[in-house]
Write a structure and sequence with these properties.
six-stranded mixed β-sheet, 14 helices, about 475 residues, globular, eight-stranded mixed β-sheet
């Protein structure tokens, strides 16, 4: 991965350096309950939000007084929480998707290292991300954080550590309380709605200067590390790049960043959306993932040989992604809307090709020295659950190494024209996920069965809605 950079804040005529926030370890480095109690007292914290991501990446959990939190209170959530769709419905049983008749409790186990303030709350409030275990402490393989942890452990068994750096795109949109009406860009400080074609525009950033300041302030207060922020091609479309690091820590950061950005936007009377394709005719929003692998003992990049050339593991990793990422695409493109982004001429790859510094391929190898050799997965949308997208991407690459897969030749030409080499819709993607036993090796059969059932349920819910296209072209013509 690239070396750590000074955090940049684009402002004025050029990108401007700003002070780096305090070391996250100072803010989020609590190791035990005694330290947690002292941390809460020092900040006058009154309430604690104990949260965990559901299958969609939505924060779920409980809030309690800080005194109760530190009194070793048992926290539990019903297991049915991981069996409902994004709309809150419970799908029919299908395939390997089954309900647990008792709907027994799952325990929340706070990861105290994630303890941080909630800077947008008026009363002193803290938050902590929780792991999920069974009622007797047993492993629960289908929860998102556990799925990613299992993949990380598979790397550790080889003496390796995966390293990732996500890049998250999102749109700012004007508030809209009627889902039948299209979304529109908000008005910036100029009083006018920003237009598209603003890629890397400093003026585009400055339109939302106060909002971006709040994003930075909220992030620094939580110990979240922003590397850079840019304006993307779409109207009021921004991208935040995070510093590279441990997959679980980075998934936690994306999980918290989404919440942070939404809260900052609401403070200014606008929405922030991570929909993959929120506006017709405009580019979609991605969550690109830069990935590398290092030896735990030496820190050496596994993708590079001693002489600086690319290693066999580098090519095997690419081969695994080419073979298995299309089959696990539903973990990176989880909704019907996701596949509207993965279409030609919309700045998104529609293939499983790879290439050197070629942004039209699904898997891009950026220009770097041997120590920073990495592979960028450009397929995930920003609507994905970060834990599941990272688990799938890293798991597919590991399967390539485990099975000694060879990639195709690198693509030098434009790769996102012509035929589409990926599933075209949600149901096809679900079938692909269920089709290959190798994916169950890294993701668990129980997770795949549950996730596939939920996604089929979401598709059935979507099919109950009549779209404007149908009213426009079918109402009087058929």
């Amino acid at each position: 991965m690239p070396p750590r950079k000074t955090m940049l804040r684009p402002k004025g005529a050029a990108a401007k350096k700003v002070s780096v926030p305090p070391d996250p370890k100072d803010l989020r480095g609590v190791k035990n309950w005694k330290e947690a109690a002292a941390w809460l007292r020092a900040r006058g914290i009154e309430d604690i939000e104990c949260i965990t991501p559901d299958l969609a990446g939505v924060p779920r959990g409980k809030m309690m007084p800080s005194s109760k939190f530190t009194s070793n209170t048992s926290l539990a959530l019903p297991s049915a929480l991981y069996r409902h769709t994004i709309s809150g419905d419970y799908p029919e049983e299908s395939g390997n998707f089954r309900y647990e008749p008792r709907d027994s409790d799952l325990k929340l186990v706070p990861d105290l290292s994630t303890l941080s303030v909630v800077p947008w709350e008026t009363d002193p409030t803290a938050q902590v991300i929780c792991d999920i275990v069974g009622s007797t402490g047993e492993n629960v393989p289908y929860t998102p954080r556990n799925v990613l942890k299992n993949v990380v452990r598979m790397y550790e068994k080889r003496g390796w550590k995966a390293v990732v750096a996500p890049e998250i795109e999102f749109y700012l949109v004007a508030m809209n309380d009627d889902p039948d009406y299209p979304l529109h860009p908000p008005k910036g400080r100029s009083g006018r709605s920003i237009l598209g074609g603003q890629g890397y525009s400093i003026a585009g950033i400055n339109e939302f200067d106060e909002l971006i300041d709040d994003i930075y302030h909220f992030s620094a207060a939580q110990g979240l590390e922003i590397d850079t922020l840019i304006h993307e091609e779409g109207p009021a479309q921004l991208e935040i790049n995070l510093r590279h690091g441990d997959p679980i820590e980075l998934a936690d950061q994306v999980f918290m960043f989404k919440r942070t950005i939404r809260e900052a936007a609401l403070k200014h009377g606008i929405y922030a959306t991570f929909m993959a394709k929120p506006m017709q005719g405009q580019a979609g929003s991605a969550m690109h993932i830069h990935q590398s692998v290092v030896e735990i003992n030496t820190g050496k990049n596994v993708f590079s040989n001693a002489d600086g050339s690319a290693s066999k593991e580098f090519f095997q990793f690419i081969g695994g992604m080419q073979k298995y990422v299309p089959k696990s695409l539903v973990m990176m493109a989880p909704y019907v809307n996701s596949y509207r982004r993965l279409t030609p001429d919309m700045s998104a790859p529609v293939n499983n090709a790879w290439g050197y510094d070629n942004r039209t391929t699904a898997f891009r190898v950026p220009v770097s020295d041997a120590a920073a050799r990495r592979i960028e997965n450009r397929l995930p949308g920003s609507d994905c659950n970060p834990y599941l997208a990272l688990a799938a991407s890293l798991g597919c690459g590991l399967l390539g190494i485990m099975n000694d897969l060879e990639p195709t030749l690198p693509t030098e030409d434009t790769a996102n024209e012509g035929s589409i080499d990926l599933p075209r819709g949600l149901l096809e993607a679900v079938s692909q996920l269920e089709s290959d036993p190798a994916l169950a090796e890294v993701l668990s059969a129980e997770f795949i069965g549950l996730y596939a059932g939920v996604k089929r349920g979401e598709f059935e819910t979507f099919m109950q809605v009549i779209s404007p296209w149908e009213r426009e072209f079918l109402l009087l013509n058929v």
